[in-house]
Amino acid sequence: MNQSHHQLLALLADGQFHSGSELGEKLSISRAAISQKVRQLEEYGLVIHSVKGKGHRLPDTLELLNKAKLDSGLIPAVRNRLSSLEVFSEIDSTNRYLSELIGTENIHSRLALAEYQSAGRGRHGNSWISPFASGICLSLGWHFPVSPEPLTVISLGTGVAIIRALQQVGITNAGLKWPNDIFVNGKKLGGILVEIRAESAGPCNAVIGIGLNYAIRTMDVDAIDQPWTDILSVSENRLSRNECAAIIINNLVMLLEKISQAEPASIMKEWRTYDCMKGKLARLILPDETLRGRILDIDDHGALMMEINHQVRRFHIGEISMRVE
User: Fold this and answer.
1) pLDDT per position as a tens digit, 261-276
2) Fewer CB atoms < 10 Å away: N or C end of the chain?
3) Would you say the pTM of this structure is higher than 0.85?
4) Is 283 a catalytic residue?
5) 37, 110, 123, 177: which one is catalytic?
6) Could you give the domains of the chain?
């Protein structure tokens, strides 16, 4: 998506009809070029109504990410902590963008958000579906001079930060599914992808990726393979997308600071209070076998504890998928 596409989308963001002539005049291009760009925008999952004699419009208003609005929502301590804040209209993956900078640039407290990720990723390389401007997709780089112990506290702590943020947004019943999913009322709201490069007892660079559904349009759901929900559907407050993103950033940065101060035990304890899968039956899909058992808890190292065939077994974050029954 180039600058002219973004400008066209900004003009259509009010949800009102705009004629091809009006749009062409404002962008200094022909009506035919406007029609072509409308078709190209539709390839990003956007639905644009085109009616002869009326013009083009989005079915609803659309809020684009805005650096100034994001910045105004950050608390001073977080605003001063961030080394950079970048907003991309389109990128392959914000996690990949920051990960590729490790070794050549300092990624500490570097934040990247995107309207659309063409290769957004979840765990195990699974794709993350988020149509243009429908979610809150961001990645934050963080450097730990000494690797946290255990490393899983970064991923689990990120979940805690998100739950805290959602409570401020007006979602009081959000919960966590080990190790990286956020649920509300049994439906998935989002996920976490943490990529770590660490040395034993040495420094650690982490890229923390967060993807949350903000306002998923009904025509976008065909590619989603599980029950889902979004922030606007379950929040008691109708905060803007930029406001919600800023609240999430505030909580994430403050929690990472807490990890840096070596308080993993308190974070693990809080994670347990948000565990919405405890006591449920689940299947664990491992590389070479599938196991079935009951979810018990996490241990002090962040490993999943399950009762399988009357024995308590522990599983660490890795090549494991869990399906709750």
Assistant:
1) 878 899 999 999 999 9
2) C
3) yes
4) no
5) 123
6) 3-57 (1.10.10.10), 67-274 (3.30.930.10), 281-324 (2.30.30.100)
